Amino acid sequence: MKPLPTLRQLRFLVAVVERRHFGAAAEECLVSQSALSAAIQELEDHLGVRLLERTKRVVIPTAVGLDMAERARALLRGAEEMVEAAQDARDPLSGSLQLGVIPTIGPFLIPGIMPILREAFPKLKIYLREEQSAPLLARLESGQADAAIIALPYPSDGLETMELARDRFFVVCPPEHRLASRKKVRPGDMAADDLLLLEDGHCLREHALAACSLEGARRNSGFQGTSLHTLIQMAANGLGVTLVPEMAIKAGILRGMDLVARPLEDDSPPRVVALAWRLSSSRKAMFRQLGEVLRGALRSAEGETHAGSPATAMTISPDR
Questions:
Q1: What is the pLDDT of residues 79-133, one digit of tens each?
Q2: Which residues are paired to 163 by β-bridges?
Q3: Which residues have C-beta within 8 Å of that of residue 100, sequence separation ≥ 6?
């Protein structure tokens, strides 16, 4: 039998290739730089190929180094899934869960659902990470995250997704704006307005444009928000109108602002809030249970809203 590289060596290789720096990779792996460097050298000697080009300032992976790092990621994922499968056999609802969430969902969903998740899964330690869709799904694919709460449509090849809720869009504008008098807003009504959008990289940007069919509309390109809260502030200062998902409206993002929120017409497509995980994951049954709990919590919140006054038109004025 041929001697094989160790998982420790493979983990070190992946860290160096991703970080392009021995010190940063050693810090990530919680070892000394000398120990990491020695392990990489042992791996190169074992394989008989050069994996990295070393200079005083940077580390550059060779072509074979990049190939070996990609193979190492797959092997590490397989090893992690083997451990997860054994853990699930003992107690599928215990252990830890690395759960990612995108920034246009996290602040409005997480505070309300965490107590519910703790009650439903008391033995499960949930660690949250907030990132934009692309880097978050990259972490999911690499095994650095176990599951993610994302918004669809979004490319999700190699993932299994479970719909949790449909999140429609509201037009947010000052109370004196011409759209403020509408009960519902037709997409064409916004064509003449400066539309305030999130910067590139946020999937909500494309979802908002699709919801109102305004791909060719005027956009205030001089102002691109980094968050929904930024867009709200810009709208309050008369820089244009913006589109905000219902989830954020319900969570009180307009509280204290002299703004009104009017829903788009019913046939405007909402974004879909979904839970995603790898098709190869051994924890599918647990993720489906998690999804059912999340779905129930969101339905309950929606029912409470409709039990009060229907969320068809909202006016939020500053606290006085």
A1: 887 887 777 666 667 788 999 999 999 999 999 999 999 999 998 899 999 999 9
A2: 274
A3: 128, 129, 130, 131, 136, 139, 140, 145, 147, 148, 149
